[in-house]
Amino acid sequence: MRGPSTPENDQMTYSLRLAQPGELDTVGAITAAAYLDGGHIRAEAPYLADLRDAATRAEHAEVWVAVDGAEVLGSVTFVAPGSALAEVAGPSEAEVRMLAVATGEQGHGIGEQL
Questions:
Q1: Cβ contacts of residue 89 below 8 Å, gap of 6+?
Q2: Residue 5: enclosing H or E segment and its boundaries?
Q3: CB 6 within 8 A of CB 12
Q4: Please, what is the end-to-end C-alpha distance for the chain in angstroms?
């Protein structure tokens, strides 16, 4: 089972960090697949293009990833107050958006850590 280090298990099998530019296409693909596979969005929904466009998200927000070596396992977008990506937050509130974990990696606590 994957997971961050804990007092019971000091071996780290994945880490959390800001996404690197070369990972953004993968982040977008994982996000879109997680929303589609989970039944949260239909394939014809216009929002699917936003889910795939992690590069634009990274221009306006922080895109965090869970990685195991070079493998991206999941991601989440942290939207600061006042960002163009804010949808529901008030002027002084941040948002967490587009949390997604690769379909084969779900159920291991990665989303909770993100």
A1: 79, 81, 95
A2: none
A3: no
A4: 16
Whether 26 and 47 have beta carbons less than 8 Å apart is answered as no
Q: Which residues of 52-77 are buried (b: 16+ CB within 10 A; e: fewer)?
A: bbbeebbeebebbbbbeeeebbbbbb
What integer best gives the mean pLDDT of the chain?
A: 89
Rounding to the nearest 10 degrees, give the CA dihedral for residues 88, 82, 17, 26.
70
Instruction: Quote the pLDDT of residue 7.
Output: 42
Mean pLDDT of 13-27: 96
- DSSP code for 41: S
Those residues whose C-beta lies under 8 Å from the C-beta of residue 113, and which sit 6 or more positions away, are 3, 4, 16, 66
The predicted-structure confidence for 30-80, as pLDDT tens digits, reads as follows: 999 999 999 999 999 999 999 999 999 999 999 999 999 999 999 999 999
How far is 11 from 74, CA to CA, in rounded Å?
A: 19
